């Protein structure tokens, strides 16, 4: 049996326990632990005796003075709900489930027990407070100051003590100011109280943490300085203008700075008092905590959030006695979304501005190529393209042509709309010349792919599959991966495995065709003679290559043109409908990165046998998916929301999975 070391508080050591307890009982306990496949060490009888047990089992033995018979009963109960097996292959881990749901107020997902990291008495918690109402630029700046003042206020009495105790916590505003995100990592027995401490402070009725004027002004001054400094680096300036062009609700930096200068502490206090009336909070709990701990946290959070909303309602002019409407009844989507611009095929839009720093010698050039709405197949081919291109573009443009010190190519997903970026930062060449060299490289890249040997192509493909199928290295990494799928409200927790399945079927011809259709702005290079590329380029000009006046772009023009192009319908989940649980195919669910590496040669001709085994089990898999889908909702009751005038689910017209309050 594998030997591991455990914290001294989670171990029974020395001969004392042999003197205080019957040795036969100890032997029974040790046998039971071995049956559970936990760590249990018993040295020879003539050496120092000890018994070590993992923290998971120790958590079920609250009082060490209890009889061993009582302890054994707890362990036996524990063994009926936990399985720990050691195999040479990874099995599909349990998907987080909804364990707490209050319409329009709070939804908690949880993956409890965490058998992959059972030796760590730790947990991770994430919460997104998603806005239910549209907000002005002034509101978004109040939201920013609300989050900053909250973080500042907890530093002394909450954050620092928690940090000393090896807990981590953070608060930040979500992209496009669609809400606030909270993150907590730490010990299982204290992390719930840490999360509640943050929420209690944020939901305080008087918002006293904002009232100290001197402190408010210092935090505001720092925020203004940070925002203004963002454009001093040309690469950051490039990214800011690119986001402004791509996102519907992204405001210009100049406008945000101007508005923030006028925001007062009274504005932020008023905003903070109504904040929890206008948000829906969704959380994720991952780690070695029990369901009772999670539901207790849910009860406390729900009461806190409901009370905060009621306090705000009581201070308003609503005297009807009815429950206050949450969210915007006129909005078909309950949550606030930021749509992404839909660039028409053949678009080649360019933005040119001078660097803010007049002494800046570097120029930055970004080419963004829009792919379209996200799905596993498009993600697979974009990721594999990135795998091939990242090294070759650096070698060509950085090493051989010396265009600049920074050269990179990378895939991106913005609100579930996929795209591809090429970035070059150069002090020696004009942005126009750099753009031409980027286009030359991209035009030639399909031929580079087609000329690869099968061995070279398969090596890169297997490498990407290994990365997609790799096990999570730690609890923090696993919880972060899960939370990415809560942020977009798609809940595709095992998407990486499905993407890996698609990667295994991609051929050189597929990559070459994708590159011609995505990157080429010349119809002569497109596969069917029509230019399909959707390109946006942003150039920040250093002092040596200033923008010509006729080419200079104005912020108002950028905002106007994206409105003319129009936007994709949101590809994110609506936060109301929980989609069918995504379950990978049997073959890919049980795949291991080592299996891929060993059998890489078998993928030499993916069009023949690479993934064809899945078709054999198609009918069986369909039945299993239905069964697992039923398990997913097995502890939930489907019912219609009974909240009068509920702005979250549309007056109860949509159904959601509910966890009934305990005792009902």
Tell me about this structure:
The protein is α+β, with helices and mostly antiparallel strands and about 675 residues long. The chain is about 45% helix and about 15% strand. The strands form four sheets. The chain has a six-stranded mixed sheet, sandwiched between helices.
Structure summary:
This protein is an alpha+beta fold and 664 residues long. The protein has helices spanning 16-20, 23-35, 55-58, 68-79, 137-164, 191-202, 213-229, 234-246, 253-262, 265-275, 291-315, 376-400, 431-450, 454-469, 475-487, 495-503, 508-519, 555-565, 586-589, 593-598, 606-610, 613-616, 618-632; strands spanning 11-13, 50-52, 97-102, 106-112, 122-131, 168-173, 179-187, 279-287, 348-354, 363-373, 406-414, 417-426, 535-541, 637-640, 655-658.
